[in-house]
Design a protein that fits this description.
This protein has about 160 residues and is an alpha+beta fold. The protein has helices at about 5-15, 35-50, 60-70, 105-125; strands spanning about 55, 85-90, 90-100, 130-140.
Length: about 160
């Protein structure tokens, strides 16, 4: 670039009118973030599943319908939120869980640990304040309970 062109640009910049700049809001204030109930439900479900003593979620009817859905191709989409209900507001969330606890675990301790894990995960990942986590223990899974359909190939006990 020639020195004459550089001098012209500097001259133009010196004489350009200076416009008052509008105050710019911080990035966190430049828009809105909405988090769907299903997202919070998945986070809560994953966090609760990590607690030792949690066998599954949902009542027997919910689990039966879920088992049928699981056999349909693409039917696993609702697996993470089965037995999990959430309400999400702008800044807060509430979670309801229907749990099946493994036999031998202290139900109150499992529930307390689930509550703690769910609150920590949802608040950390979403920034929402979790106002409550209600836990409804709907069943106890016994060691000899089968999650699958009854085995029809086994010989009957009584003939």
């Amino acid at each position: 670039m020639s020195s004459n062109t550089a001098t012209t640009r500097q001259s133009d910049e010196q004489h350009a009118p200076v416009l008052p700049s509008a105050p710019v809001a911080p990035p966190v204030e430049r828009g809105r973030t909405a988090i769907a109930d299903q997202v919070v439900g998945k986070i809560a479900g994953m966090a609760a599943r990590e607690v030792e003593g949690v066998h599954s979620f949902g009542g027997s009817l919910t689990r039966a319908i879920g088992a049928v859905r699981d056999r349909v191709p693409g039917g696993r989409a609702g697996t993470m939120t089965r037995g999990v209900k959430v309400e999400v507001g702008e800044k807060q969330a509430a979670v309801d869980l229907d749990l099946v606890v493994e036999y031998g675990f202290a139900i109150a301790e499992v529930a307390a640990q689930v509550r703690e894990e769910v609150i920590e995960a949802v608040e950390r990942m979403t920034g929402l304040q979790v106002v409550e986590v209600n836990i409804n223990v709907v069943d106890v899974h016994l060691p000899d309970d089968s999650d699958d359909e009854e085995d029809t190939t086994a010989s009957p006990r009584v003939r």
